# Entry
Amino acid sequence: MEQCKSIVVHGDELAAVNFKEEGLDDAEIEKGRKIMDWIRKPEVVFARTTPSQKLLIVNACQNLGEVVAVTGDGVNDSPAIKKADIGVAMGCGSEVAQNAGDMILLDDNFCSIVNGVEEGRLIFDNLKKSIAYTLSSNIPEISPFLFFIIFQVPLPLSTVLILCIDLGTDMVPAISFAYENPELDIMERYPRNSKRDHLVNAKLISFAYLQIGIVQASAGFFTYFYILHDYGIRPSTTFYLALEDGYIPDAHDVYNPAALNYGNSNYQSESFKTQLNWNANQHNGIDIRLFYVNRSPDSWARCRWNEGEGLDFYKYSVVSGAQICYTTEALRFAQGGYLVSIVCVQWSDLMICKTRALSISQQGMVNYHANAGLVFETVLVAVLAYVPFFNEPLGTRQIAFPHFAIPSFSFFAVIMAYDELRKIFLRNGMSKSRRGRTVLHGWVARNTYY
# Structure
């Protein structure tokens, strides 16, 4: 029997082995070894077994680390059905068996088990994808506050705009993953180890936070500094600017780099010394070049749009009516650009999260709910930016068209290219076992396949 690859074990023989081992202690290494040796065979059939012997078989399989499914319809089958990892009760069976089972075959067709397992794996997969998509935007949401605390830059993203992302633009795309089609290899995988393969694991956290999240945050900060530079504030100037003291200039003061104190007549007057309120409309009309007298003229850049250049809302704020260049209004436009940049990179995040291993070209854009989600978040962020009704309460502004997703689109391409390359290495690290199951090889497959 030791040389045989396929065996049939009669219930009487199983009973005899169990009778010999009944006197052994549960911790005894020899207890259950004979049954486990049989189960290790490539093909084994246990014939004419009693309900109690079915329970022995289930225990032995689970001791070997196998995922066990048991079918039955009678009251006597319920202990084994309850003990199994997947208990399958027949629709025509007893109520006790149905209560013990995890799955009930209403049509009494064993083919339905395969369909049920596939549906369960699809739900688990889609939950993973939705969580990965949702978690990725956490990094570009929290990093602005870290930058504000550490480097004292004017806050790149307000809390209200974070709520616009979490409760607005991300909602429909995240829900759309429930309608995603299964991947081609969904039934070729080994059964999930419930003790190790959790819904959210270290690989998923690493993918969402340390890989995609970092790129998304980079897109946001690039857009933030890009817009501020277009409105006259160099990126290096923003560091330690938010909490720096200055002097509110007189209403008739005009900035002149060659003049004394650059034209601020209230310099060193303690009654005019304060900090600019970057996060409100209180100091919208103040020329920050006059306010921050301690900053040299090299701290400021030339405005991209001057008189006669571009559209009016490129130069003047619809909310305050003041010019955007060299004022705190520039921050509102930069925050709006940061919001749009997150939506832009979330386009790519949605597309890469549609699959865990396959290329997007293999899966296709056939999930119309996801396509509708892409349109929804784009339209929503455009409404928040360009409809005047939302500008003042949410702190958004009508950002210039060259600032709408264009600065961050290169990061969209980076995320798509990175993930497609990762999945190429991942698929190359997948092979089929002799049972036709998918086996992972290589560093990329073992450490990034979440």
About this structure: Residues 276 and 283 are 7 Å apart (CA to CA). The radius of gyration is 32 Å. The first strand starts at residue 6 and ends at 10.
